[in-house]
Amino acid sequence: MRPSKRDADELRAVTLERGVSKHAEGSCLVKFGDTHVLCTASLEERVPPWLRGQQRGWVTAEYGMLPRATGERMRREASVGKQSGRTQEIQRLIGRSLRAVVDLEALGEYQISVDCDVIQADGGTRTASITGAWVALRDCIEWMRARDMVTKPVLKDHVAAISCGIYKGTPVLDLDYVEDSAAETDANFVLTGTGGIVEIQGTAEGAPFTEDEFAALLGLAKKGIGRLVDLQKMSIL
Amino acid sequence: MRPSKRDADELRAVTLERGVSKHAEGSCLVKFGDTHVLCTASLEERVPPWLRGQQRGWVTAEYGMLPRATGERMRREASVGKQSGRTQEIQRLIGRSLRAVVDLEALGEYQISVDCDVIQADGGTRTASITGAWVALRDCIEWMRARDMVTKPVLKDHVAAISCGIYKGTPVLDLDYVEDSAAETDANFVLTGTGGIVEIQGTAEGAPFTEDEFAALLGLAKKGIGRLVDLQKMSIL
Amino acid sequence: MRPSKRDADELRAVTLERGVSKHAEGSCLVKFGDTHVLCTASLEERVPPWLRGQQRGWVTAEYGMLPRATGERMRREASVGKQSGRTQEIQRLIGRSLRAVVDLEALGEYQISVDCDVIQADGGTRTASITGAWVALRDCIEWMRARDMVTKPVLKDHVAAISCGIYKGTPVLDLDYVEDSAAETDANFVLTGTGGIVEIQGTAEGAPFTEDEFAALLGLAKKGIGRLVDLQKMSIL
Amino acid sequence: MRPSKRDADELRAVTLERGVSKHAEGSCLVKFGDTHVLCTASLEERVPPWLRGQQRGWVTAEYGMLPRATGERMRREASVGKQSGRTQEIQRLIGRSLRAVVDLEALGEYQISVDCDVIQADGGTRTASITGAWVALRDCIEWMRARDMVTKPVLKDHVAAISCGIYKGTPVLDLDYVEDSAAETDANFVLTGTGGIVEIQGTAEGAPFTEDEFAALLGLAKKGIGRLVDLQKMSIL
Amino acid sequence: MRPSKRDADELRAVTLERGVSKHAEGSCLVKFGDTHVLCTASLEERVPPWLRGQQRGWVTAEYGMLPRATGERMRREASVGKQSGRTQEIQRLIGRSLRAVVDLEALGEYQISVDCDVIQADGGTRTASITGAWVALRDCIEWMRARDMVTKPVLKDHVAAISCGIYKGTPVLDLDYVEDSAAETDANFVLTGTGGIVEIQGTAEGAPFTEDEFAALLGLAKKGIGRLVDLQKMSIL
Amino acid sequence: MRPSKRDADELRAVTLERGVSKHAEGSCLVKFGDTHVLCTASLEERVPPWLRGQQRGWVTAEYGMLPRATGERMRREASVGKQSGRTQEIQRLIGRSLRAVVDLEALGEYQISVDCDVIQADGGTRTASITGAWVALRDCIEWMRARDMVTKPVLKDHVAAISCGIYKGTPVLDLDYVEDSAAETDANFVLTGTGGIVEIQGTAEGAPFTEDEFAALLGLAKKGIGRLVDLQKMSIL
């Protein structure tokens, strides 16, 4: 039995709250249980130098954690003077995941920067970030559409993410911190609304895992992400 | 008339919500109108090197802003690689303000780090931070007391802060961003619950100001901080 | 009685020596007793990016301390790799103080950078810096006037600064290091030649202070700054 | 047809040259075609602070590229002043991959640092690094064994890595730079000698990919890594 | 007798291997015994900002050491976040030495960056770097000539470098690491093919040295560099 | 004729003013004409980690320039965030030069840090620094002797430095900035009081130089340094 009493294929309580920022063009406070991430999408008129003049836009992401989002206080990255390897890895993943469902030419010469800041962490911050970031990004694009800054469809699909792992020998969905710390294998999946795979990251924490185990994790992920995409759809009704 | 329709001596709606963090020993989400700051107090067993072995504790503070807390997205300090002068100035002020009401010997050889992270900014982030930080600090000390880590009184008094300014020739209390941008003079006051002055910072943005104007600002601040201390008291009933 | 035997309202010996740099457009070696600061004003043809094309100039300041300006050698900031929060706070204060008396439009599209480098420290380095910086800035502007780079009046007034504090219960003027270390309250005042207040910073080092105490400090500051402005006037005769 | 004329399931010419460093306890120059990586394993007597006194060792990795390893010269990370997100991501992957086959308790309280420096790059630098790093690590452990620093088996298995991708609609093995730049999907696999999965990273560069496509890539990877493990075995005969 | 059994005026085995990089416009792997340095010359179309529009080019150099090039592993400069003073000193020396034999006007508005990366170190890395860098630079210029990017002679002469030192009282040529660590005096000489002196750096490691000793070292250097220039000539036949 | 009207073998006016710092254990303001350097020697009770417990001391040096020490204002290194290669090269040279005349065992387990800060620059800042640093160091050691912290002789000899160069074809002594900028060859010599050579650095700025030219420069240097050592002796009478 899981510490959280959840079934093997059961997500934590997930909520997506839109419009939580007075300033941002799009925003979403996403909660996967006790993991809370504030996602804001900011429209910027300038694109990166290497894109200028190409009639294409860009979507990028940054990720951060408040120092006491975690059980023990971590040092503030701004005060340390650099972002950790883990932070950079996550923000690159979020950016790639979002760009996989954006038509950068339809966006036009704009950049959208999505900030995912973890207010409270309990495992799965990167998957919650991606899931919430899509909502913030979507609202930013609608904000632009309302002002005729984009005319064609920009978002090609939904994108959401979930972690799976093998916990005490059983494949389970959506690991919280306690499970994540003890899991033998940890995998993150990023899928589109139509079931296409955008990103797979699987890591053996202890013993290597088998192809069958991996297939079981992927099966769970497809189920979980299907549910997350439904929640995204409901949130924007 | 103020853009916010408030009277000259009227605070914005202020709320202090305790216990907002699952992990921190003390926490408070403080709102001064649209300025929202999450304050967490973290207990750490080690004190700074220069204090070791002296049977005294330390209280320190760090301050940060989410990149899109503001009207225009700012660069993330962790990604820039250093904290701005403004950030450092503010976090030093918060730390000094809290220490002014803490008996460091009664605290014993512990450090409490208070993080003030601005979730949304609309002027007055440093004064909201100090006001909320006191509540988070207080709850952290009570957490320690419940575990017999402190026995004597540690907090000597309340401390809270407010900004005042001269806006279109009139001294007003608790500037929001629109007023702050246009104010001729901007001053921040940090006072204790018993009315003692902990810190005064007054700056002429345009023309220098007079002694009488300054006295008017101080008068407003005393009134406003009295009200903030009342709210702190109610929040911890 | 003060350790320095001075009266409560007595400045240290203050000298302002102009033209001490072979290269700078304006320069002043200011001494407040054993506190010695070399101020140089450097004319630069380019303004900061955000000011370009606006027909306005800019005045900025940087502050530094030689490593052995103090009783114990401090680490060199260039070797540490960053400026401390204290350094940034001081150089921002110097810049704001100077700009309060400069007509940036009359200056035209030039930047003047004033460097205040503490050769020897004995308390009051920021107030000595501001007082000497005004002289260096003034000479730089005269250098420009002699070359027809400015035609209208650029400096609107004098500006000078002094510290005051409550030492063993008595308000005193112009704290030296020994007094500063022991003072219960420490305040820095920046005033113009005509008595306008540019900046006030008051900090309770131990117990909070009262409004009356603060008024006494302001009274001393007005007297001291009046004398400093007289010395500035004599120095440029 | 592939630009390199290789069959879809054909590796580039792979060589593993041991003992290439006069100083390192273990070393291997690995070549995957024109991708050349120098791997050195350095024995260090001290473990990271968080491991001290636990009778366990640690294996870590660092990754770098010579500035002109690539077609266009890149800025030297030492001169830029920080490692890129990509560099950090890769060196974390190498370290995790090696640790998956090391018995850290059998290693005892030592740290082995494996440096993977890309002398010349033509795609697949991270997979070549892992494959060569295993050989360098193995020789370092044998060096220790010859000196009785370890007695029990430390290496539990081989580990090697390969990239696969979908190039013009066809799944292919071991992408070189030209193929990698044009591939629709890119995946890296890290497997043990007995076929266990240590790490999977799959990324859709353009359109999302399907579960079947992913299965095809995994099939190719198993075949390629089997061959790489054979080459490792031959190299240490 | 020298630890290496060499005569006092005997170089280590020196080899210069050209064309070792698939990508660089010029490259040379230089070996002075067990000291191995990979030199690559990279052509860049842009010159430094202060040279733009002057119809002149620039030659610059960067130097690095792989972490385990040395007997004990050194920390990676990219991970430390800055280049050491020693690294900067050496790369400035290499750059100056190369520029001494280049006609920057004949080069035209191009920059050539020469990277010298020490693969294995056994003393004399800076002198090997200069000697090999000349070959890489020469091949880069020939690459340009073949494409009509330069027409006039660009290289005015050969340049090469060698260390000398006083080891156990005797002046010796081309110190290896063991000799270098024990030498009383260490000097590096950079000379042109026609015997002109480009750079001399002599340092007393222990007792100061005399004018006669220095003359003996210079005599050895001239002999050794004559031989190195012969080897350069043979390498480019 | 030299721009300064000096004879070829004539130093600028050199003064060595001791005791210029209220705080430092030894200090000297050295002037070589318009080049002014403040040298302070600071006694520190701790030695670098790698020297601990060896009953030996250490002498180190740091070098800096005030931003407007030069004709054009340079960026402040503390604000840039790192020391330039030139700065590091010079401070390493000063440290080596001083250590060449110090008996580190006689010094005992103390570190003396000598700071050389250029107040005004007109060429030759490194040679003035070394010459003045010796005086500051000597006074620091005498300060220790007066407190019985050292008993045996610590300073083995004088050390001083001078630049020479070939200006318009003529070897000249002690280049000022104008000469230095135009010199074909520039060399710095560090010699002891008894004429031993501690350090030689010769650089061809344009065309390489000959052995005879170098001998002429060395001859001038010996003469000039003899005079500087006389001035050091007079200063400490």
TrEMBL record, chains A, B, C, D, E, F:
GO biological process: rRNA 3'-end processing; rRNA catabolic process; tRNA processing
UniProt keyword list: Nucleotidyltransferase, RNA-binding, rRNA processing, Transferase, tRNA processing, tRNA-binding
Pfam families to which the protein is assigned, alphabetical: RNase_PH (PF01138), RNase_PH_C (PF03725)
Keyword check for Signal: no
GO molecular function, one term: tRNA nucleotidyltransferase activity
Residue ranges annotated for the Exoribonuclease phosphorolytic domain, each copy included: 10-140, 159-224
EC numbers for this chain: 2.7.7.56
Coiled coil: none
Binding site for phosphate: 86, 124-126
Catalytic activity reported: tRNA(n+1) + phosphate = tRNA(n) + a ribonucleoside 5'-diphosphate
Record's subunit section: Homohexameric ring arranged as a trimer of dimers.
Functional note: Phosphorolytic 3'-5' exoribonuclease that plays an important role in tRNA 3'-end maturation. Removes nucleotide residues following the 3'-CCA terminus of tRNAs; can also add nucleotides to the ends of RNA molecules by using nucleoside diphosphates as substrates, but this may not be physiologically important. Probably plays a role in initiation of 16S rRNA degradation (leading to ribosome degradation) during starvation.
UniProt family annotation: Belongs to the RNase PH family.
Family matches, as HAMAP family: RNase_PH
Protein name as catalogued: Ribonuclease PH
Species this chain originates from: Polymorphum gilvum (strain LMG 25793 / CGMCC 1.9160 / SL003B-26A1)
Gene (UniProt): rph
